[in-house]
Inverse folding.
């Protein structure tokens, strides 16, 4: 069963820091070097000083980015920059944003709540992952968690509640003015309310008790928390319960505002790259449609035609643009092939994903880019926006860009609950959770 607990969060004193906009950040793994510099300069109290601090020359065991984060966290609490809320609560968390949908741009509201979630090993049948993790990010986050003994950012979890029982409780809380409100750099409005009455807390806990959960964002942080809990069991017998909960934000996968963006792939530096040879090999597996263009306006029209062809294809379909070729391509998987024989280790749900067809067929079979190269991001980089991929080819920064349709939440659910995984960077849930609204120190 899924166990969620209310808690007295550690929160910024907005008056002391000049407003929340000065101190909140995107999640640590979304902070680029440019964003890091901007956040660190924006305010001496910006959360990036804790979750994405600067490494300095001469760092060693006694003084490094992790020990400085721990000292800074203690100092901010001593100065009342961060203050503990007076009573345990769940925190209703609403995100208002705009997103492109097939029918056009829509304004949506994603309604969730922040709580302490009990850590469960994957074999318990309570928490399910959908992406593979890498060792380096987990080692980094584990060092930070050891030093600070605090969960500084939340893990995004999905539950299933077609009746929207929990959202009804959250909407009751949202009738009052929010306890915190801030707009981020993407124009997303984040609002927070405390849910501290006994009745509402119990209604949420009961509705969550029989849930199976999917990690949407934060796989590395979840597995880091599991590793830390195992350390606590080994080094502090009897106190492991202190480490058995982590900061989690829960959203209903049947609710409004579950938006998954595609993450497109740029191919760079592949030895022996040849567009004609690739297309010749790809013809064994794909039916290509070519959309040529001339000027800039024509480019946008050709891009739109490719997107429409991808979206309406009767089989998994990839988009592509190649260096020195004034055209977009839609590569639709051929229906006359025995895909179950080509990809026998994948389930039908996995074979329905454009991203798996890209990785297993276009990259591996047609280009020789193996799984290890993909895992280590050799030859591949990632962009969220279609236009960013187009521009990279236009200025000669990449050999090819492969475009993907977004993964649907139904596909994520089916694959995750079957105990299977998607390739890395298959899902980009939008918007991201804003870091810095609430923190959870383990030492009370």
């Amino acid at each position: 069963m899924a166990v969620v607990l209310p808690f007295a969060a550690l929160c910024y004193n907005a008056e002391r820091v000049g407003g929340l906009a000065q101190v909140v950040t995107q999640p640590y793994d979304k902070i680029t070097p440019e964003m890091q510099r901007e956040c660190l300069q924006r305010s001496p109290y910006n959360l990036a000083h804790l979750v994405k601090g600067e490494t300095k020359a001469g760092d060693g065991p006694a003084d490094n980015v992790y020990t400085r984060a721990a000292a800074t966290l203690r100092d901010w609490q001593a100065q009342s920059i961060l203050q503990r809320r007076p009573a345990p609560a769940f925190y209703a968390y609403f995100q208002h944003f705009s997103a492109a949908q097939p029918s056009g741009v829509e304004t949506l509201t994603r309604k969730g709540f922040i709580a302490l979630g009990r850590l469960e090993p994957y074999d318990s049948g309570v928490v399910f992952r959908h992406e593979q993790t890498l060792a380096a990010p987990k080692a980094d986050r584990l060092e930070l968690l050891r030093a600070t003994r605090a969960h500084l950012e939340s893990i995004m979890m999905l539950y299933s509640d077609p009746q929207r029982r929990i959202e009804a409780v959250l909407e009751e809380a949202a009738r009052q003015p929010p306890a915190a409100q801030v707009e981020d750099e993407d124009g997303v409005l984040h609002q927070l309310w405390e849910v501290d009455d006994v009745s509402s807390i119990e209604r949420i806990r009961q509705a969550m008790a029989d849930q199976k959960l999917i990690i949407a964002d934060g796989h590395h942080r979840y597995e880091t928390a599991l590793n830390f809990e195992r350390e606590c069991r080994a080094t502090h017998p009897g106190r492991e319960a202190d480490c058995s909960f982590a900061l989690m934000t829960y959203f209903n996968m049947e609710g409004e505002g579950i938006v998954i963006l595609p993450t497109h792939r740029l191919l760079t530096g592949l030895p022996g790259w040849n567009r004609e040879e690739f297309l010749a090999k790809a013809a064994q597996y794909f039916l290509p449609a070519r959309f040529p263009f001339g000027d800039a306006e024509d480019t946008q029209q050709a891009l739109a035609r490719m997107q429409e062809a991808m979206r309406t294809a009767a089989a998994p379909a990839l988009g592509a643009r190649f260096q020195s070729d004034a055209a977009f391509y839609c590569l639709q998987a051929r229906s006359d092939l025995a895909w179950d024989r080509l990809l026998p280790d994948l389930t039908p749900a996995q074979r329905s994903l454009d991203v798996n067809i890209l990785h297993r067929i276009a990259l591996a079979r047609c280009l020789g880019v193996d799984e290890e190269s993909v895992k280590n991001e050799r030859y591949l980089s990632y962009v969220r926006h279609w236009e960013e991929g187009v521009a990279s080819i236009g200025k000669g920064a990449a050999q090819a860009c492969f475009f993907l349709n977004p993964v649907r939440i139904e596909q994520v659910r089916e694959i995750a609950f079957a105990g299977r995984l998607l390739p890395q960077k298959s899902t980009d849930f939008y918007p991201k959770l804003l870091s810095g609204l609430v923190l959870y120190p383990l030492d009370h």
The chain has two domains: 4-259+430-441, 263-405. The first strand starts at residue 4 and ends at 5. The radius of gyration is 23 Å. The chain is about 35% helix and 25% strand.
